[in-house]
Amino acid sequence: MDLRLYDTLTREKRPFVPLDADNVRMYACGPTVYDFAHIGNGRAAIVFDVLFRVLRHRYGAGHVTYVRNITDVDDKINVRAARDYPGVPLNEAIRKVTELTYQQYQDDVSALGCLPPTVQPRATEHIPEMRAIIEKLVAGGFAYVAEDHVLFSPQAMNAANSMLPRYGALSKRSLDEMIAGARVDVAPYKRDNTDFVLWKPSKPGEPSWLSPAGINAEGRPGWHIECSAMAWKHLGEKFDIHGGGIDLVFPHHENELAQTCCAFHSDRMANVWMHNGFLQIESEKMSKSLGNFFTIRDLLADWPGEVLRLAMLKTHYRSPLDWTAKATEEAAKTLDDWYAVAADAEPGAPSPAMVEALYDDLNTAQAMAVLHGLRGAASSSEQSRKEFAGSLRLLGFLSESAAAWEARKRQASGVDATAVEALIAERTAARARKDFKESDRIRDQLAAMGVAIKDGKDAEGKPITTWEIAR
């Protein structure tokens, strides 16, 4: 069956044909490391982790290269560094901030079940590549120097008589629309309002590097050039897939596409552009002013990462996602059941029906329907249980044993396991002497503690009572 992906550039879903099936290459925009990542950033990490897993399943784990960058030079980083480390030289303070927040992000997305990318390049380690691209753009007439800045000219790109795409092709906007819809920096040295910065002079104390294009003053890169440079270094002039959130289409990805195509005289940067939809909270836009802004770390304090992962994957990646407390609770209950049934099963090959759903532009909503069907069959067939376990693992679930999952729930609940076991022993004794009134009273007491019990028999047919934390 074909793997079909939706391309933002062409606005169509079509069969995915890699440039080289022995080295399928994808790039996704990662975080700017100045603070904890919000849950919307978590959605992007999960979506492209699923794509990474699907590509590995289809082409082999050793035949997929996944690059997710780290932006570690930015005005917001400078502001936090000065705030958190007063009296410390700014460059040293910046390093402290970026090291801390980089590790926080790594820990958070790992808790969401995301595999580590093949490469996680830092922007500050790719300044030579940025300068090289800028030099190519200036030499080609697509960029110019003005007052120690280097600026890219969309007008020059669109005037070029070549195979280059039109500036605005990715976002499907005209230059006038882009001016009206963007926060345009007005500066006297710009030839046109749509021109954007590739390089700028550093202020005193800010990070700085040797400038390109014959500029004597040291400076630092603009935001957009960073990803063009890192993608080029690790994936080449043209690669298979470029991904990110829908909010990055304009201006970031539009500008990346323009820079790379003009620098290398190419009609494409990536063969497929993929973007996940917005995330809102309880039907409202996430905003600090509304008090509904949540970081991944905030939610991990209340829920296991796989619960957050499942809550996101129930919605197709291109659709808007409404994050609700109810949906999170439902995801937790579903995972409790899945862990009880399949966590300790030997995983088999994933269900062909689920693979088919994922090959249809990562249709995780359809994959969920397949999983629920597999869950029903898993109760009566060991082969179905193995297939169920293999399908869940392909999606990034079942990272723990059933016992570890249950132990996590017990620890998070604050329930005293010793006290629960003592009450169960008392109830067992009451049942043995046929004191059913006392037995019911203890069951109710346990329920009030948030404990659900289940009576059954062990392998030898003897009565046994097990318990778990009720969601």
TrEMBL record:
The identity of this protein, by name, is Cysteine--tRNA ligase
Q: How does the annotation summarize its subunit structure? A: Monomer.
- Domain Cysteinyl-tRNA synthetase class Ia DALR: start-end pairs: 353-406
Q: Which organism is it from?
A: Bradyrhizobium pachyrhizi
> Which key words tag this protein in UniProt?
Aminoacyl-tRNA synthetase, ATP-binding, Cytoplasm, Ligase, Metal-binding, Nucleotide-binding, Protein biosynthesis, Zinc
Residues binding ATP, per UniProt: 288
Q: Where is this motif: 'KMSKS' region?
A: 285-289
- Reactions that this protein is recorded to catalyse: tRNA(Cys) + L-cysteine + ATP = L-cysteinyl-tRNA(Cys) + AMP + diphosphate
Write down how the cofactor binds this protein. Answer: Binds 1 zinc ion per subunit.
Where can this protein be found?
A: Cytoplasm
Q: Which family does it belong to?
A: Belongs to the class-I aminoacyl-tRNA synthetase family.
Family matches, as SUPFAM superfamilies: Anticodon-binding domain of a subclass of class I aminoacyl-tRNA synthetases, Nucleotidylyl transferase
Which EC numbers does the record give?
6.1.1.16
Query: Motif 'HIGH' region in this chain: where?
Result: 31-41
Molecular-function GO terms, alphabetical:
ATP binding; cysteine-tRNA ligase activity; zinc ion binding
| Database matches in Gene3D superfamilies | Cysteine-tRNA ligase, C-terminal anti-codon recognition domain, HUPs
Q: Which GO terms describe its biological process?
A: cysteinyl-tRNA aminoacylation
